[in-house]
Amino acid sequence: MAVTPLNEWRASETRTRPAQLAREVRREWERFVVDGRAERVRAPVLASWERSLVAGVDPSGSRLAPTAAAPDEVATRWETHPLSVAAPLIRHALESFAGDSDHLIVVSDANGLLLALEGDARVRSQAADTLNFTEGALWSEDDSGTNAVGTALAADHAVEIFAGEHFVEVVQPWTCAAAPVHDPETGDLLGVIDLTGLCHNVEPHSLAVVVAAARAVESHLRQLLRDQDARLRKRYDRQLTETRGRRALLTRSGRVLSDDGGWLAGTRFDVPPDGGELLLPAGERGYAESLDHDAYLLRELTEPRLRPTPLPETARALADEQAALRRLATAVAGGGHRQDIFAAIAAELGPLLGGEDATVVRYEPEGAATIVAGVGPCTDVLPHDRRVALDDTMAITTVFRTRRSARQDDDLRSRASGPVADDARHPGRSTVASPVMVDGRLWGAVVVSTTRGPLPADAERRMAGFAELVGIVIATAESRAELSASRARVVAAGDDALRRIRRDLHDGAQRGLVNTIVTLTEARKELEAAGVTGPARELVDEALAHARTANYELRELAHGILPSALTRGGLRGGIEALVSRARLPVSVEVTAQRLPPALEATAYFIVAEALTNAVRHAEADEVQICATIDGSVLRVAVRDDGVGGARCDASTGLLGLRDRAAAHNGELRVVSPPGRGTLVAATLPIADARAA
User: Fold this and answer.
1) Lower CB count within 10 Å: N or C terminus of the chain?
2) SS (H, E, C) 523-548
């Protein structure tokens, strides 16, 4: 067992053997890739894996980090970047360590863009060729998964990432340690300093070394800032002295350099680039005058005090709406189920307008509405998929008739009847509903209501704008669902066609071949009885051999199409029949529970293709097959100990299996590092297969 590091941001204590640690983190990574769980992995690494998964990074993919800037642009960015002034210090602090351990010295900006790399030319070339780890490449977590540069930026903490802790498999032969560097004036993240090398050159002190370098750089930047502050105070001392009243000298970032008697201590101002009026802490008005574009002279104005004004409500409302839409877009992009998308829309609606209840309804052709999602004390008592009749007391009826937003600020509901009215009836309820248009047709409506007083005066306008974008979200979700259902129908139709072909082969061509074999066998016996020898008997023997061979090949072909053992015995029966013909040891753990036929067929073909790869190409000595039910999903995993290097592209059958798994809203991953075997793992939702 690996030694748990005392510092969870460090990969290992010095007494842990790197090879042992690499094997153990690799096993944890494989487990996480298969079922999303890991036990013996550091908390910062697990958190980074989860962020990478949410960002859509493919752990088994060979996609290199994206290039975000051309060489000329990178050079310009580096020349103007605050860390470039510390380049000699970074080199001095790290070059001896990097040279002894064949590590690269790397500096990135706050977005993970690599700005500068130094080190051994051979290592630089290998990193560039295999990883695109070079100037101009983007190594944020969202783009490249768990790595020291991206994870240090995401967590704002120094971190070491070793071997299999990297989320993307192609990066796992490497080790890296990075520390963030902050602007001493604003506290903003400037970027990271990183040491990167191959795993066999791992150094136990690399994290400590890179942290020391980052702290030295921050200290250097603080000293440069102090020197600059002193120059500004000296340069503008006369203006401060000659200015009447309370005054202060500000940096371009709004930090107070010098003030009259400390009246602005601890204050930072948001100053317009060219200067202008400001609101001072106690409500007074001030004016910031730009001084040669490197400082501001702030004077207190003598007019009456003003009350501080908060952020405009319109700006705050717009920011809230944009944040809600980003969350909904993320949910759709993540492939969420339609019902989950509807629930997310309802959950976002209420807080936007200050409502207690929020509902999403879908209009039906016969003039009714179906509640597809809702949140709130009133809505929670209504079952989803409940159909309600439209009457004049409901805002959604007005929306249905006019295709426009509608408001209801009285207790008209008290005159309505029926279960929905009974649940929703409350004197003084304020309700706003807006139409949701999908592909130019009225799809439904979003509704917000409250009993805490009228909804905001601009509620209809805000709801209409939000509902327009909700329509796009719903259209995307429905298109995704329709595509998934269409793919599932294609797969099911294909399986039905395969069953018919197998039946036709068995009842037609195969039966004819069997009859031919019987006839030729009888003819051979007659020839033997008659003592016939020579060419005639040889021709009969040859014909019999060809017929038997053709029958065997046809039987194998029919079995490969869709075996009867799968139809009769389910997934376990099909896989056991498959394994019985394998020419190497295979261990099997397969559920005996019957599943939807389409799901069983997909799981069977995944196992069959992976087993074929292990037997024909992987030079494996052993194969492990596991197909178990985990809650609402079927998890399938086939692992061999062969040569690895399997590809999941158009040249292999694995790509078709990935599409087949996607048709069930499932996922298939292939982990196949050269020389380390192959893992084919699939997660297939059972409920979606039953619904199909």
Assistant:
1) N
2) HHHHHHHCCCCCHHHHHHHHHHHHHH
| Cβ-contact 274, 290 below 8 angstroms | yes
Classify the C-alpha dihedral 328-333-334-337 as positive or negative.
positive
Local structure of residue 393 (DSSP, 8 states): T
Number of domains in the chain: 4
User: For 486-505, what is each residue's pLDDT tens digit?
Assistant: 555 555 555 565 556 656 56
In a domain, 510, yes or no: no
66-120 pLDDT, tens digit each: 999 999 999 999 999 999 999 999 999 898 888 888 999 999 999 999 999 999 9
What 3-state class would DSSP assign to 674? coil
CB contact set of 19 (below 8 Å; sequence gap of 6+): none
Query: What band does 588 get if pLDDT is binned at 50, 70 and 90?
Result: very high
End-to-end CA distance of the chain: 45
Read off the pLDDT of residues 558-581 as tens digits, 9 standing for 90 and up.
555 566 678 788 999 989 988 888
Same domain, 100 and 143: yes
Find where tokens 């191959």 sit: 198
* Look-up of token digits 């990935």: 658
Q: Report pLDDT digits (tens) over 48-64.
A: 999 998 888 888 876 67
- For the ranges 30-34, 438-442, 483-487, the one whose mean pLDDT is highest: 30-34
Element (H, E) at 499: helix 459-505
Query: Which DSSP letter does residue 67 get?
Result: B
Would residue 13 count as lying in a domain? no
- The model's pTM is 0.48
Asked if residue 491 belongs to a domain, the reply is: no
Does 135 share its domain with 247?
no
Q: Answer with the one of 269, 300, 331 that is the final residue of a domain.
A: 300
pLDDT of 166 reads 94
Q: Which domain holds residue 287?
A: 238-300
The letter for the amino acid at 330 is T
Kindly state the tokens that stand for 280. 């001072």
d(CA 667, CA 648) in angstroms, rounded, equals 13
- The verdict on 272 and 331 lying in the same domain is no
142 and 196 co-located in one domain = yes
Interatomic CA distance for residues 159 and 177, integer angstroms: 6
Q: Among 55, 600, 689, 661, which residue's Cα sits nearest to residue 680?
A: 661
